[in-house]
Structure formats: C-alpha cells, structure tokens
Amino acid sequence: MNFRQIVEMVSWKHGLLSEKVLSHARTAPEVKARHEIMFVAYQNSYSIPQITKLINRDYTSVRHGIKRHKERMQ
User: Fold this and answer.
1) Cα-atom radius of gyration of the chain, to the nearest Å?
2) Cα separation of 9 and 4, whole Å?
3) Which CA distances in Å does 70 have to 19, 20, 42, 57, 65?
4) How high is the pLDDT of residue 36?
5) Which is nearest to 29 in space by CA: 42, 43, 38, 17?
6) DSSP notation for 14-50
7) pLDDT tens figures, 37-67
8) Distances (CA, A) of 18 to 49, 63, 74
9) Which of 11, 16, 33, 58 maximizes the CB count within 10 A of its CB?
C-alpha cells in the first residue's frame, strides 16, 4: 500500500479530510488519525525517516505517534 492510499484510508475511516489530517491541526480527531497514519505506514515497511518527510514532522514526533497509537489499540 502506498502512502497516499494509507492517508486516504485512515482519513475516510475517521471522517476527516486528508488535507486536515496532514496539516498542523492539533485537535484530538486529527491527531489520532495522524498517529494511525504513522502506525500503518510503519507497519507497511516505511521507515521513521521516510514517514517524517512524507508528513513533515520530526523524528521524535513520528516515533511518539506510533507508540501512542499502539497504546490506544491495547
């Protein structure tokens, strides 16, 4: 699955526009969707540095997002 497909799938699942999810919006729905995008991308063999470039975030933000989504799933 390519990154664009991941973004569209997660955005649709959360009922949000993909542009809003990838923006710097910090409301809970956008943040949760963004974390899920990071997690799904990571599970689909994207490295953290690749994800940082694709969503314009720093390394620690992506690592934190992946961790937070894993915690929410449990």
Assistant:
1) 11
2) 9
3) 24, 22, 11, 19, 9
4) 98
5) 17
6) HT--HHHHHSS--SHHHHHHHHHHHHHHHHTT--HHH
7) 999 999 999 999 999 999 999 999 999 999 9
8) 21, 21, 25
9) 33
* Token pair of 49 as six digits: 């540095």
CA angle (20 as vertex; 24, 11 as ends), nearest 5: 125
- The C-alpha atoms of residue 52 and residue 20 are separated, in whole angstroms, by 17
Task: Enter the DSSP assignment of 23.
Answer: S
Largest CA-CA distance found in the chain, in angstroms, rounded: 28
Listed residue (68, 56, 74) closest to 19, CA to CA: 56
39 exposure class (CB count in 10 Å sphere: 0-12, 13-18, 19+): buried
Tokens of 11: 């955005």
